[in-house]
Amino acid sequence: MKANRQPKPILLGLNLLAVLPPVGIALLIYLSRWQWLELLRHPQRLRHDPVLWFFGGLMVVTGLNLTRHSPQTVLLSLIMLVVVLNLWLLCRFASDSISLNTCRDLIIRFGLYITISGNLFHWISMPAWLKFLSGNLLWGYAANQNRLFGSAYNPNDACCLMLIALGLALVRRTITAHAKPTIHELVTLTILGIGILQTQSRTGIGLMAILFVTVLFIRYRRHRVLIILIAGACLALTLTLLPRHGTLLATLATRLSIWHNSFAVFTQSPILGVTYYGFSHQYQLLTGTSVPHAHDIFLMLLASFGLVGGGGFTILAIRGGWQLRQIWQRYRPDNVQYLVVTLPLIFAYGITDFVLSSFQVLVIVLLLFAYWQRETVQQKIRRSIKKNSSEKKVTS
């Protein structure tokens, strides 16, 4: 069977990801089901895709755990990795067939829907099955019930998605800075900002303030003094609006304890890890308490997949950051501006929480990474063409 080659079903799945998350996730998994066959037909793609090598390494170390940990958790982890691998290949195809501007607008609408639906759902009584179908069923601590999460099941996941949407909306505004901001743009930025505040995510609110200052600096770097003043005002406003500040120290202590214990889980099996779905069980055996993940993307990969997971992720992050920096300094195309803002934003949020456990966040992150990889490949092709044309001129 052939892998899906039509972008319209993918767009439908991405839109349903916001409105009916289980349906959208199921559709995208269905559309990606034969992507691995395309990889077998064209194995040369492995040479140009470090993300594929990364996933391949995770699958190998997970498979080697079959005799060391519960077969059920190992097999579930392998199935999950195959699904994610197929989704990555589908996102790569989407980045070639769907423009980044289309994807940008879709993600911005996603963020707006989370804010609007979260406020509407608060006043609507729903049965449990409808809450699950619409994403309005809280996953996590009951204390988060009063925080906005819209159709994202969890306020921290919702905040991450809205931060990405806000970053894209801000870059879109700066790219067209020669024109006056439209009412639509101002309303979009306002709704996303309010939504992030309503999630009560302290990390999210802090990153939102940094995001506004960073985008201003990128666009108006000549006015450094003004930007410094704005940064000071944003800092004061952030400290004023910071929610749940009374529990800040207690939350920080809990998070530090989770990180310390997660690293201890890693030290028990540093080479092969404890598998993705085996992390919670191993954490409970070690501490007597249960947590779903390490609340840190690096520690979660390190504990789950050992040095291959932690080291591979570090290499991808450093390599990607270096490539983005080079492209930004040499060319500064509009597409790269979106990635320069959003990818570090995702990484920064991932330091304090493992939001990739949400398939909604995971798909959006994979999609943005696919556009990043496409952009780096295109820049290599342009440099090669420019180099060849220069050599021809010299020889002639």
Automatic annotation (TrEMBL):
InterPro entries assigned: O-antigen_ligase-rel_domated, WaaL-like
O-antigen ligase-related domain segment(s): 189-312
Keyword line: Ligase, Membrane, Transmembrane, Transmembrane helix
Topology relative to the membrane: Multi-pass membrane protein
Spans traversing the lipid bilayer: 12-31, 51-68, 74-94, 106-130, 204-220, 225-242, 297-318, 339-372
Single GO term (MF): ligase activity
Location relative to the cell: Membrane
A Pfam family: Wzy_C
Domain of life where this protein originates: Bacteria
Keyword Plastid: no
Name this polypeptide is given: O-antigen ligase family protein
